[in-house]
Write a structure and sequence with these properties.
Blueprint: H1 2-36, H2 40-52, H3 56-68, H4 76-87, H5 92-104, H6 109-121, H7 125-137, H8 146-157, H9 162-172, H10 177-189
Helix pairs in contact: 1-2, 2-3, 3-4, 4-5, 5-6, 6-7, 7-8, 8-9, 8-10
Length: 204
């Protein structure tokens, strides 16, 4: 009797969880559609409760609204609070925003690089581009490494807009043939690692 009760309880729990996930997915889809048609009020209405529930995709979309002032008062601090919350769950887009802010502002560069690396390793093209340029230039917490620079810039350029390809071509003018060949080999061997969190990464 007890086993049967527990079994039914588990089935009910799984059903409720599945329904909640489906509802969240539907709300997120509605929010994305609202953002596409620039109906920011509708998007905010859908995203706010999801964000409070800890949905990382909703947190990133709402963070972008605050960052750009789309339908809400521009509030970069609130935006990055949301990005950091989503980053803690391994969201690659959020990690890019947090990492880029630190690196470009020269604020705690080693930590910013960890965020960028976690995002780049998941396949975020903008993080790959910024990380590649950081390796090319060398800076605090990241020694110059043309081979890794070529790898990340090559990954950023793959199947992407011409701008990214131009960044790779420009960078390779500062490299020798051996460095380019090694970077190309590393890029060919690279595979995305989904769900990485900044705490999982070393800055270099």
């Amino acid at each position: 009797m007890t086993c049967l009760y527990l079994r039914r309880l588990l089935i009910c729990a799984f059903t409720i969880l599945a329904c909640a996930q489906l509802c969240a997915a539907a709300d997120l889809t509605s929010a994305k559609a609202a953002l596409k048609r620039k109906d920011y009020a509708a998007a905010f209405k859908e995203l706010s409760p999801l964000s409070k529930q800890g949905n990382p995709d909703a947190q990133v979309l709402l963070g972008r609204m605050y960052l750009l002032g789309n339908g809400v008062l521009k509030d970069p601090d609130e935006a990055y609070k949301l990005f950091r919350a989503a980053s803690a769950q391994g969201n690659a887009d959020a990690e890019f925003f947090v990492g880029a802010r630190s690196v470009l502002r020269h604020e705690d560069i080693p930590t910013g690089l960890k965020y960028l690396r976690a995002s780049a390793e998941q396949g975020n093209k903008d993080a790959q581009l910024l990380l590649g340029k950081a390796y090319l230039d060398g800076n605090e917490g990241l020694p110059r490494d043309p081979v890794k620079a070529d790898m990340w810039l090559r990954l950023a350029a793959k199947d992407n807009l011409p701008f990214y390809e131009l960044q790779l071509e420009s960078a390779e003018q500062e490299m020798n043939a051996g460095q380019i060949a090694k970077g190309k080999a590393l890029a060919a061997a690279w595979r995305p690692k989904h769900g990485l969190k900044p705490g999982d990464m070393a800055a270099n």
